[in-house]
Amino acid sequence: MATDRGYSYQTDIVPAPGETIREVLAERSISQKELASLLDKSEKFVSQLLGGKAPLRPQTAVDLERVLGVPASFWSNSEALYQEWLARRNEAARLEEQAGWLRTFPLREMTVLGWLAERSTVVDQMRGLLSFFGVASPEGWQRYWDTQAETAFRRSTVFEMDLGSLSAWLRQGELQAARIDCQEYSAKAFRASLVSARELTRESPRVFVPELTDRCAQAGVAVVFVPELPRIRCSAATRWPSPAKALIQLCLRYKTDDHLWFSFFHEAAHVLSQSRSAVFLECDGDSNEEDEANRFAADVLIPPREYRRLLAMEPLSLGDIEVLADDFGVAPGIVVGRLQHDGRLPWRTTLNRLKRRLRWAATPEV
Predict the structure, then answer these.
(1) How far apart, in whole angstroms, are the C-alpha atoms of residue 137 and residue 132?
(2) Is residue 365 part of a domain?
(3) CATH of the domain at 14
(4) Tens of pLDDT along 232-262?
(5) How far is CA 106 from CA 46, 109, 111, 285, 355, in A?
(6) Which domain holds residue 252?
(7) pLDDT at 222
């Protein structure tokens, strides 16, 4: 990179500023002793400056500009680049020592999904992972996510979650949500979007994914679909990235439309509760809040009046369920899933054919 008066520096090979000063002195036939006199500094200081043992401070850069005619900005930039190079060299050594941290995460799956770029060295892998999480060090990651696990997650007592996989999945949700332009959160607008969202249960993912995302964004809720990672043991999560924006994160852990839609409306209940300090993970087991969210999701998808009508018609054939689902304005798989959850149908039944199987596209999208 060229700079004033033909002097240059490069970011790939970064010499200490003292080396460049030596070159200029040699060109001008100026000795170290003479430079010390011209700068009005001690010979010891000049020796340390040329040897890279003393930093080149702004006042010294200005003094060198007067004495050598090389702009102060050049010397300041040279020092900044050299110090950055030193910091990165030291960081590389530290990261190589901490490379065991990489085993905390499912790197292969994250790379296949495009969350991480292919990296050729351990140090580059460490840097890529730190950048993904937006943290400066493995210690910073550990401190942050330990705090989340202790204070924010409503953690399951039944399942042991893998914090590495879970944190990566949640982080990807944050990154996707940041790209969604949302209006300021409005509970009233969000409730209205939920009413209209029921009709989307009958649509294909190609239709319902962008429609649901847009409708909820208008109400201040970012809805993201994020492929599951090994051992996350969660099908959905809800949290508040900011006071004005909620985030609902969904995956295809159970791979059928009834589970996906139930998870969405379940998480919607958590948004409406406005418990903004907690991270709700749909793997939490039993609690009053989870029970309330379950009832909310069930009643929105099939309102109590319609559900009583459904039960009055038992036993139900495939054709009956299709007609009733059409009447209710929901996908027939949702009716089957509700009856199974309530013990009215066995989990293994020919009626499962009414459930739509979902899979991730290559992009990946639902």
Answers:
(1) 12
(2) no
(3) 1.10.260.40
(4) 888 899 999 999 999 999 998 888 999 999 9
(5) 52, 6, 9, 25, 31
(6) 153-354
(7) 98
